[in-house]
Amino acid sequence: MLTVVTRFMGRIFLMIRKALNDGIGLTVALDEVPPATLLQAAITHEFKSRITPLLLIGILVTHPIFYSCGDKAIGADGTIIAEFDWNGKHRITLEEMMQEISELPEYKQRQYQDKEGLETYMTLMAESRLILSLARDEKLNEDPEILKKVQDYLHELMVKKITAQEIDDKLSLTENDYVQYYEANKAEYVRPAQVRLSCITLLNKERAGEVYAQIKEGKDILEIAQELSDRGELVGPGANPSTPGDTDYISKASFPSGTEPFLDAAFSAEIGQFHDSVIEVEVQGERYYMIFRKDEARDEYQKPFEEEDVRRSVIRKAEREKRQELMDNWVAELRGRAEVKTYIDRIPEAESEEAEEASEEEQPEESPVEAEPEE
Q1: Beta carbons within 8 Å of 310's beta carbon, 6+ residues apart
Q2: Omega cis (within 30) before 256
Q3: What pLDDT does 32 receive?
Q4: How far apart are CA 259 and CA 254, in angstroms?
Q5: Is the model's pLDDT at 147 over the cut of 90?
Q6: Backbone angles phi, psi at 306, to 5 degrees
Q7: Is the predicted pLDDT of residue 39 greater than 70, yes or no?
Q8: Is 0.70 surpassed by the pTM of this model?
Q9: Which residue segments constitute the domains of the chain, with CATH numbers given?
């Protein structure tokens, strides 16, 4: 089916991009690059985790597109679906392709579940094998940089695997463990006292005075907030363009230093009460002018463990804390077994910025270029 090598050669760069983007042919490509055991260990650990989708095999086996040679399509190693010549005959089997597809992320597998997708994958797989053959001719399988990266990747996979065996597989917490963590850290799950305001915040003092006068005359604060928002004048609390003037629920921890006069007035006011003046605050050198009415308030509230967000947070933090405990104990045990010794005094001190600057100042100045004599 794919016996004409020239069909591929003009598309080498496109094929490389497709192969890398789709992750196609990685297991096959690296499987033949020495050292073989190194590459196979790295790739097998990373990708082999799923079962070949039998439904897709059924589609392929029964569809005539994959049978161009009658009974000869069935080889000793499987059903041949593609082949090409490059320093010898190269074949791709149905079983190999389905295995590769099964090892892709699920969202990519969905791209290859119909006739068109499977034919596309078959073509790309053949093309990636062809590119691999060219790379082998160029001795890239002996490239030190490539082999170093493979070695580094193998080490990373080995560390992840042993850590999973010694830590993650032993990480087991019960419902009682989660409850105990919650009880020990209840302060983290307290919703502070909050207020909700209709608020207008401006940067111009005179403009704030005009707005406050309009409110005193009876104009609705939210109507004014909408008008100011439409003109782009609102800033700070109440400046949300979808709900101008509405601060939603805020707590004292919601605002930076400098806003204390505003917060104190907001929390001490009665529900439905306007503050009796424009409040001026300064934050990081910028002055803000605030007018508000207190609409709602709610007291401090201890969130129960049963709340979904609380439970989710407790489970995540409790498991993270337990995992760190297991990790610390395991590493300490390893250090003890190996009798690890460190020699901090042999590590040179980092040169301070002052020393570097002094060193630069001590460098001799370059001699100025002498002017050429006039003729």
Answers
A1: 182, 189, 303, 304
A2: no
A3: 36
A4: 10
A5: yes
A6: -70, -20
A7: no
A8: no
A9: 6-144 (no CATH), 193-299 (3.10.50.40)
- Which residues contact residue 141 at a Cβ distance below 8 angstroms, ignoring those fewer than 6 apart? 32, 33, 34, 135
What are the CA-CA distances from residue 5 to residues 20, 75, 121, 203, 284 (Å)? 21, 21, 18, 71, 69
Q: Are 244 and 228 in contact (CB under 8 A)?
A: yes
- Look up residue 205 and give its amino acid: K
Beta strands in the chain (DSSP E): 74-75, 78-85, 89-93, 190-191, 194-202, 246-250, 279-283, 286-298, 301-302
- CA 142 to CA 139: how far, in whole Å? 6
Q: How far apart are CA 55 and CA 38, in angstroms?
A: 33
Confidence of residue 350 (pLDDT cuts 50, 70, 90): confident
The answer to whether residues 1 and 69 touch, using CB atoms and an 8 Å cutoff, is: no
Residue with tokens 């306007």: 274
pLDDT exceeds 90 at position 267: yes
Tally the residues of the chain: 375
Least confident range of 24-38, 156-170, 172-186, 334-348: 24-38
Amino acid at position 173, single letter: L
Mean pLDDT of the region 116-122: 93
